Amino acid sequence: VVGIRALGPSGGATGTGVVLSEDGYIITNFHVIEGASTAAVVLQDGSVYEALLVGGDAANDLAVLKIDVEGLTPAEFGDSSLLRVGDVALAIGNPLGEELAGTMTDGIVSAINRDVNVDGISMTLIQTTAALNSGNSGGALINIYGQVVGITNMKMSSRYSEATVEGLGFAIPTVTVKAVVEELIGQGFVAGRPTLGITVQTPTLDGWSAYT
Fold first, then answer.
1. Which residues, listed in sequence order, are joined to residue 53 by a DSSP beta bridge?
2. Catalytic residue positions, numbered
3. Would the pLDDT of 171 be above 50?
4. Is the C or the N end of the chain the one with fewer CB within 10 Å?
5. Dihedral of CA 182/44/47/6: which sign?
6. Global confidence as pTM
7. For the chain, what is the radius of gyration of the CA atoms?
8. How many degrees, rounded to 5, is the angle at CA 112 between CA 109 and CA 115?
């Protein structure tokens, strides 16, 4: 698990990433680096590497970064489809920034295949009681075998009161992560989504006859 620094026109942001490969591919959330002009990865030993964006997908809230380094220890990924409600779940990330880097919290899997609306986009996520906070985004949700089974991306908050909502964290399941990351590395984007293109033009009086 690594730290992510993103800097854009409106300021900086920090998050978490998961090492995918020995040669420097890193998985994080798309919203961590969205709008950033530069990004960097902070390793466990405190060393900082400039990161290049390989590809990102807002619909699945996933992005892949690449740093120029060899010899990293990649995470071991498990099969999220084998999870059951009540399984132990552990989250590792950088809540509230790098000062608390590598924080682990524990909980259980409280729901699987939970449909959650995120900024108008419907996502199917793992729900967990493991504590997540700002900065955990892009971190690892792991099972009792130390395998990554999800990429943490959000916690629920209340829009109706100022009361803190706890025990409602969510993660992107690895069955989704695997498919999306393979496409991002292969071509930089997720293909296969149909789009509709429409061009609108307001006719002038002189050109109205062309539209009748």
1. 65
2. 31, 61, 137
3. yes
4. C
5. positive
6. 0.86
7. 20
8. 130
